[in-house]
Design brief:
Amidase, eleven-stranded mixed beta sheet, 495 residues, single chain
């Protein structure tokens, strides 16, 4: 039998449904792969071998009884450690939640279990999803399988790296300012941010409540669409969940794979067409645009003048919401508790707990957000940022009156070496320069590999109107059909 760890999720699902492999065999192969390579990659914070095998056995038993199963039944999946999983450690890669085991599952985890997927474990990330490199994890960084001395992106670097290292065929991430798409771009994988409210935030440890969006990570566009279809949909437990049917993203991906984009208008974002990007990234991007034109697409240059203000607006809105959301981590109800020796006040215990439990980037953003919300500065900072958010939304609305989707590079640069940007937070924040506008707008966006620059992956971003997630999958799949997928260098060869 072909090595199942190198197969796509769709191929693995087909193998299991035909009876050519059992779900237990598939799970075991991936668990063994994790055991063999993850010491070098560090994609996982927790591997649930016992739970994964139990879930796989349940799928095999259901199939033996002739029960009808979902299209991803028996397929392994890795889950970002910011998503609650009942009885399994969920730490958000922070010391303040070390060892915490939630008493409930997030909605998307419930849907994964109901679909028969096999959860392998929890993946590494920047602490509380705050970062662009996974260097801010309290438990050490994740390494990029393309080059173990470089970052895998962030905050969901662990989920993306698990795919590129062939430890899992599918993974779940969350995208607040690009944390699914940017890791996808620098690891040569596919990362999709659904429409905000299209996937439930119930059970997601909140960073920025008006921006956080769970979504699928995969090695192919079709696989991402299959996972998207499983986790998406209205959830009454999430007040921001959209009570509308999920677009047929799987059909759109399969249609796009046919390579016909006749009549599709692509908006080339003028503001993202060159400035700040590495030459190799721009070269791969423009070659991909030409490939899409050959498939019948029409390219229209679109100006979105307020996109240039997205980065500063985001870094006022997101930290402001984080300062409020993270106030609950105080050592009183759960998690780390420091200094409670009977001689200190509650306020002192809370202060000592937060000092010991939060890392430097989380502290930086809490301080920034608290300042932006403080009396006398609210209107000058947070209020102004929200006005910019409205202008960016208008740019998107105006653009989508002329074109079907917008396109840009996903990131301005390829994966950078560890430590090269941590001394300058602004340089780190630039990693999300092209991804942030979509989060402020709330629409869907996807990153798909489009080539190499200096031997490292480059990502191509497709942005669509809200609740038109199918459009981005169609274009992304068409590009994938034209340029192919990327294969990282063998980890075994570098052992």
């Amino acid at each position: 039998m072909t090595d199942v760890t190198r197969m796509t999720a769709a191929q693995v699902a087909g193998l299991i449904s035909k009876g050519d492999a059992s779900a237990v065999e598939v799970a075991t192969a991936h668990l063994d792969r994790i055991a063999a390579v993850d010491e070098r990659v560090h994609a996982f914070l927790h591997v649930d071998r016992e739970g994964a095998l139990a879930a796989a056995r349940a799928v095999d038993e259901q199939r033996a009884r002739g029960e009808e199963l979902g299209p991803l039944a028996g397929v392994p999946v890795a889950v970002k450690d910011v998503i609650a999983t009942r009885g399994i450690p969920t730490t958000a890669a922070s010391k303040i939640l070390e060892g915490w085991k939630p008493p409930y599952d997030a909605t998307i985890v419930q849907r994964l279990r109901a679909a028969g997927t096999v959860m392998l474990g929890k993946t590494n990330m920047d602490e509380f999803a705050m970062g662009s490199s996974t260097e801010y994890s309290a438990y050490g960084p994740t390494n990029n399988p393309w080059d173990l001395g470089r970052i895998p992106g962030g905050s969901g670097g662990g989920s993306a790296a698990s795919l590129a290292a062939y430890e899992a065929p599918l993974a779940i991430g969350t995208d607040t300012g690009g944390s699914i798409r940017q890791p996808g771009a620098v690891t040569g994988t596919v990362g999709a941010k659904p429409t905000y409210g299209g996937t439930s935030r119930y059970g997601l440890i909140a960073f920025s409540s008006s921006l956080d969006t769970p979504g699928p990570c995969a090695r192919t566009v079709e696989d991402a669409a299959l996972l998207h279809a499983v986790i998406a949909g209205h959830d009454p437990r999430d007040s921001t969940s959209i009570p509308q049917p999920v677009p047929d993203v799987v059909a759109a991906a399969r249609r796009g794979a046919g390579g016909d984009l006749t009549g599709v208008k692509l908006g080339l974002v003028k503001e993202f067409a060159g400035e700040g990007a590495e030459p190799g990234v721009l070269a791969a991007f423009h070659e991909s645009v030409e490939a899409l034109v050959k498939l019948g697409a029409e390219v229209v240059e679109i100006s979105c003048p307020h996109f240039e203000y997205a980065l500063p607006a985001y870094y006022l809105i997101a930290p402001s919401e984080a300062s409020s959301n993270l106030a609950r981590f105080d050592g009183v109800r759960y998690g780390l508790r420091v200094g409670d020796d009977g001689n200190r006040s509650l306020e002192e215990v809370m202060s000592l707990t937060r000092e010991a439990g939060f890392g430097p980037e989380v502290k930086r953003r809490i301080i920034l957000g608290t300042y932006a919300l403080s009396s006398g500065y609210y209107d000058a900072y947070y209020g102004q940022a929200q006005k910019v958010r409205t202008l960016i939304t208008r740019d998107f609305t105006s653009a989508f009156e002329r074109v079907d989707v917008l396109i840009s590079p996903t990131t301005p640069f390829v994966a950078f070496p560890f430590g090269s940007r941590t001394s300058d937070p602004y340089q780190m924040y630039l990693a999300d320069l092209y991804t942030i506008p979509t989060n402020l707008y709330g629409g869907p966006a996807i990153s798909v590999p489009c080539g190499l620059s200096e031997g490292l992956p480059v990502g191509f971003q497709v942005m669509a109107p809200t609740m038109a997630d199918d459009r981005m999958y169609r274009v992304a799949a068409a590009l994938e059909s034209a340029v192919g997928t990327l294969t990282p260098p063998s980890l075994e060869a570098r052992a």
